[in-house]
Amino acid sequence: MSQHAASVGTRARLLAAAREEFAAHGMGGARVDRIAEQAGANKERIYGYFGSKEKLFAAVVAEALAEHAALLGPPTGDPAEYAGRIYDLHQQNPHMLRLMMWEALHYGTGTLPAEEQRTARYRDMITELSATPDTPTDPRAAHTFLALLGIAVLPAAFPQLTRLILGPAADTPTTRGHVVELARRMTTGAPVSGETSRLAGEHSDGADDLIR
Known about the structure:
single chain; about 210 residues; Tetracycline Repressor, domain 2; mainly alpha
């Protein structure tokens, strides 16, 4: 194995070990010695590759976000079905949500690593879901998109809350169906399966009209 290949392999192992460590313990509780041990590397390699524990965390989040986006696919078609895909992905990949929650706790309202790029990505997603060739993005689309994320992500983020509220109905197929149906109501104004509309479509300005 070449020196370059070995270096790439070490870096990949460090990122994989760090993802497990950060997902379990967050920025404050994660330990670089545990990450290095799990990766089978000297912990000095962490500083050599990434510079600091915080930069390693940023690299882990960036890698996880890229994988998440690739698995989710482009935000095209029916926004309600897209919400269902978001729901499925977070149910199948709980590490992503854990990393996001640890990131929120660590940075609070401060600036995130790569914040401009991430903001632009969400803006593009909203545009792809809400606009048509002849229709500009509805100014309320960002709020509706945030609400879609909320209903799709909350069951995986707080499984205990989902169980306490829904009881036996908390099983994944039932809950997923309600997520998709509510998303369809929010984006079309009518709970008709298969009906599509641009995000935050033809509604009045009233809050009730955005969800019924």
